[in-house]
Amino acid sequence: MRTITRPLASLLLLGGLVLAGCSSSGAGSATDATEQVVTSDATGTTTTASTAAPVSVEEALAANIPAHETESEWDTATEVTIGLADGASTVSGDGATVDGDTVTITQPGTYRFTGTLSDGQVVVSSTADGVVRLVLDGADITSSTSATIAVEDAEQAVVVLAEGSVNSLADTARTVAEDADEPDGALFSRVDLTITGAGSLAVTGSTNDGIAANDGLVIDSGTLTVDAVDDGIRGKDYLVVSGGDVTVTSGGDGLKSDDEEDTTAGYVAVLDGTVSVDAGADGLDAASDVIVGGGTLDVTTGGGTGQTLADDASAKGLKANVTVVVGGGSTTVDAADDALHSDAAVTVTGGALTLASGDDGVHAEQSLAVTDGTLAITGSYEGLEASTITISGGDVSLVASDDGINAAGGDAEADGMPAGPGEEAAGEYSVTVTGGTVAIDAGGDGLDSNGTVDMSGGTVVVSGPTMNGNGALDVQGTFTIDGGVLFAAGSSGMATAPGTDSPQASILATFDTQPAGTVVAVATADGEVVASFESAKAFSSVVLSSGEIVAGETYEISVGGTVAGTATAGLYDDGDLTGASTVATVTGGEYAAGGMGSAPGAGGPAGAPGAGGEFGGDVGERPEPPAGGFGAPGTLPGRGDGATETTEDDAETPTTT
Hey, which of 117, 510, 543, 646 has its CA 20 to 30 A from 245? Predict the structure, then answer.
């Protein structure tokens, strides 16, 4: 059983954002959630209790043990020179001995290595206080029996890549007993290890990991290429990349930290530099937190989107047991599984993310928050999924073959039977939008909450489903809007809108299906265009809520004109009605009786499907991704044969009030 309990009282809470177990009725405080608890047993079952998400990279780092530091300068006159040669290695100075093709370092100091060992090893066994610094200056070491460099004992170890040098470390494939206490990386350290310098190092791990440190591991600079049959680079207490150019190809995880005992350890942080990972399993995998604060990070897992995974396989891009925090840099992920995944919380406070996923773009078991930055999900099954989702800033765009944004949790199919339309009970789930821009292109429900939706700012634009078994908006509880701009276009069978008692008025209209490429405009009775949108998909309903919509006023929905003005998330604030025709006339704040609206204060669907549009068939298991991955949504996978796609032949009657 593993338990992580982390004090968080010193962390600022994002607008009182707390996870399940805390009050959802209002803003919280530091006393609402002062611990972060994740437990997991031997079967991999994970349970998360009350917690709060760090709101910045700095706070996430402060919740963990600090990475070690080391001196970057030394007196070259004190160096010990070691020449490597098969059966003839030499040492010039004190502190090192040679026995056959094994060189042993016995005391602190700086040791410069040149030459080649075709089957040998460097062992560090220093019991005295002080740093052991290994300068690789054209060193090429291969070992068939153990790690090429094994730091067994030292206060701290540093590997320096001499400027302009080319170095290579490789172990050969061999069988190691599971309970054997021997080095499990081609470059291995039992103490804190730093890799730095202005040269290059290629590491090949043919038995297990490429680089492995049983304490902390810091990559400060240098050009590092790692190819490993299992994990690429592993630091048990932490793995911090603060610079350099790192390329990892691994059969297992790419970058990993796996300390499951110390509650302040087990984190992976990319703070600067360039990191490229191609992993058979997870790209970045942390027992506690994955933190991205800067640099360039490019991750491919499981062969990328479109690849089929075994039931027990994990090929997530960035995966953490506690939190994933992205606050800077450029992150690109192409994952066969979730692109970003946390067993508790995901927070995006900055940076630029481009994600492609064979499953969810971003998945958090508890909370997901976007406060700033750019988040683009180019393909996914579901775009954003968590119990509570908060967007207060930044620019979010996503493409999903199923739901775009989904506030949900638990096992919806625990009884073996999926819930039918309208059968799900509103749970303690929520979507809150107070700022930023959100553009959703969904094949299933566009904006979906099994609980509530509250919007008071920002812009949300939904290009929703074409078939009537889903809706551009789908809310089981109350849907309240008190600011911002909301626009949704999609099918009409499950069309819904914010509650009519919301402080900000909305309009909802259904009409005959319009083909993809059609411009739809909302205008006042005197012809002033409030908004226009060019739909990339067929649609038969429109929802608009903004400060321009006045309760009780009449609005005309027209198609066939052109967009104009300034666009935000694809929605224009003006339009040209030349050549357009009116397909519906509606009243602000009022929805036609039985015409897809909501009871006051509610956001759930009402009314029967539009003519010609049946509800979709049963929802099955989450599908295997098609060849090429989940791209632009078309027919929603995982639906039964009863699902129908809205076509121009569907004869919905225009809504008029």
Answer: 117
Number of domains present in the structure of the chain: 1
Q: How far apart (Å, rounded) are the C-alpha atoms in residues 212 and 201?
A: 15
Q: How far apart are CA 600 and CA 479, in angstroms?
A: 10
Whether 419 is in a domain gets the answer no
The owner of tokens 């949790």 is 409
Q: How many CB atoms lie within 10 A of CB 127?
A: 10
- The SS3 call for residue 458 is coil
Reading the block at residue 651, the tokens are 């004869």
DSSP 8-state class, residue 654: P
Q: Which residues, listed in sequence order, are joined to residue 433 by a DSSP beta bridge?
A: 391, 455
C-alpha span between 301 and 149 (Å, rounded):
28
Residue 612 has pLDDT above 50, yes or no: no
Whether 437 and 416 have beta carbons less than 8 Å apart is answered as no
DSSP letter for each residue of 47-95:
EE-S-----SHHHHHHTSPPPP-------GGGPEEEEE-TTT-EEESSS
CA distance 601 to 475: 11
pLDDT of residue 151: 98
Q: How many whole angstroms separate alpha carbon 442 and alpha carbon 420? A: 19
How many Å apart are CA 655 and CA 407, to the nearest integer? Answer: 30
Strands 340-342 and 367-370, by their bridges, are unpaired
Q: What is the 3-state secondary structure (H, E, C) of 526-564?
A: CCCEEEEEECCCCEEEEEEECCCCCCCCEEEEEECCEEE
C-alpha to C-alpha distance for 154 and 127, rounded to whole angstroms = 6
Domain limits at 171? 76-230
- What's the rounded Cα separation, in Å, for the pair 537 and 556? 21
3-class DSSP assignment, residue 476: coil
Residue 541 counted as domain residue: no
Over 60: is that where the pLDDT of 8 sits? no
186 domain residue, yes or no: yes
Give the pLDDT confidence of 237-284 residue by residue, as tens digits: 999 999 999 999 999 999 999 999 998 999 999 999 999 999 999 999
Q: Is 564 helix (H, G, I), strand (E, B) or coil?
A: strand
Q: Say if 171 falls within a structural domain.
A: yes
Q: What is the CA radius of gyration of the chain?
A: 29
Contacts of residue 325, defined as CB under 8 A and 6 or more positions apart, other chains included, come to: 53, 54, 56, 57, 60, 289, 290, 291, 292, 346, 347, 349
What confidence tens digit (pLDDT) does each residue in 474-512 have? 999 999 999 999 999 999 999 999 999 999 999 999 999
**Whole-angstrom distance, CA of residue 544 vs CA of residue 549:** 8
DSSP helix, strand, coil percent of the chain (3-state; round to 5): 0, 45, 50
- Tokens (6 digits) for 629: 């991955």
